[in-house]
Write a structure and sequence with these properties.
Number of strands: 4
Structural class: alpha+beta
Largest sheet: 4 strands, antiparallel
Shape: globular
Helix content: 10-25%
Strand order of the largest sheet: 1-2-3-4
Length: 73
């Protein structure tokens, strides 16, 4: 059985971006880092030192396409 690396990508150089539509009032916002090699990271903007989720660019693209097509409406 092969070992699996569960550490995830290094996020120390992540450039986090929040939607301009979220404003400065806090609320339910996420931040996305798309500048990482081979990974897209997502975190809660209210807890920037908390955990994050990482996706491959293909997974993230599939999610965005599903959102745009109204799959989650």
């Amino acid at each position: 059985m092969e070992a699996t690396d569960l550490t995830g990508p290094d996020l120390s150089r992540a450039t986090w971006k929040k939607s301009s539509l979220s404003g400065d009032s806090g609320g339910n916002c996420v931040e996305v880092a798309g500048n990482l090699p081979g990974a897209i990271a997502v975190r809660d903007s209210k807890n920037p030192i908390g955990p994050s989720l990482t996706f491959t660019p293909g997974e993230w693209g599939a999610f965005l396409n599903a959102v745009k097509s109204g799959h989650f409406d």
